Predict the 3D structure of the following.
Amino acid sequence: MAVITGGASGIGQAFAQRLAQDGFDIAIADLNPASETEELVEKEQQQVLSRPCDVSSPESVQTFAEAVLARFGKVDVLVNNAGIYPATSFLEMEWEEWQRVLNINLNSIFHFTKAFLPGMVASGWGRVISVSSTTFHSGLGLNTHYTASKGGVIGFSRSLAAEVGVNGVTVNTIAPGLVRTATTAGGPQSEWFDALAQQQAIKRTQEPSDLLGALSFLASDGAAFMTGQTLVVDGGWVRS
Ligand SMILES: NC(=O)c1ccc[n+]([C@@H]2O[C@H](COP(=O)([O-])OP(=O)(O)OC[C@H]3O[C@@H](n4cnc5c(N)ncnc54)[C@H](O)[C@@H]3O)[C@@H](O)[C@H]2O)c1
């Protein structure tokens, strides 16, 4: 079974649907109700559990993890996807906003991996897949907290991969470019869609569906010899 953080909408919702199609039962941790995602998973005849969960709160993650383990016994795939991306210049950024972005985008990965990695190690098979961003590679402005958090995701994955390869657990990262989701389409990012598409080798705006092949591969047995890596899926914008 697979846990997906931030699976109530956007990229996480598409991830939940795809892993359900691949035969995984799904658990969603999100601040918002995930009823739409639940329906998509049930259509694939897979079990689904969702609970309100603040991924930045250790207590909230622990409560969620207890519910997941009580229902499913163990977790095979953890997808650390929940994240926020407020666009703020560093000179205007307050310490509170910096901490909020780091807590949601990076520290959450500590809480979820702590909760579910021991079960993967015990069973001798597991996948930890985290979502970074090619803002890490490109260094876009107005994103210092975000880019620092997404670089942290890559560093975390590289180092953890070295520890748990012997246990049959792989740890990888997917780095999307700018993806059209309800949040980006309704935010300042929407103004960059067209210009960014022109800088890509493939000149159209990225959709969540463009990430699903990479996700499905990393979660599969076919990716068993690949770990500590970052798969850049951005239409050929950056070269990693
Ligand atoms: N959309 C993009 O252009 C893009 C590009 C690169 C990377 N990413 C990354 O992909 C991931 C998903 O992005 P998206 O565009 O689908 O975002 P989104 O806003 O559409 O969805 C994010 C989900 O995370 C949930 N969430 C936010 N804070 C949470 C918290 N504290 N606890 C629990 N759930 C929380 C939201 O409720 C939402 O359902 C993020 O990590 C983001 O940084 C997105």
